[in-house]
Amino acid sequence: MNKRTLAATGAAVGAAAGGGSIAGPGRNPVWYKRIRKPSYQPPSVVFPLMWTALYIDIGATSSVAIDRFRATGQHDEARRYIAALSINLLLNAGWSWSFFRYHLLGTSALGAVVLAASSAGLAKQAAQADARAGLALAPYPLWCAFATVLSAHIWRLNS
Prior knowledge:
mainly alpha; Ferritin; elongated
């Protein structure tokens, strides 16, 4: 794994995580506690644990995918992956802002759909670079799909 690629993907993922956390539930805990949530929502402690693991996974797996594309002369594919990763990370951080900061539950639910699709596309691209990288990234779109269901249900409960 190229250290520069890992540093770049790690910095990008860290920026998205930091940008999203600024708007997180700690910013307005009263609002978040008051909204109705489905019975299957995981305990609050699960979210930071899952996202930390997923962010590490995204950074490392993306580094592997980019390096594999470059090593096999697929520089256009590497650039496309980087573009897809950038869009995905913006969507990821943006969801926190629309949900926690601006309380736009419908927008957040729709944003979660787009994020889940983007995450699935990213995993597919990673698999094209390296089958193991795609498999390693698979938990990300799965978690985003669950978050989409959860976000849509919260929207419905609070409309």
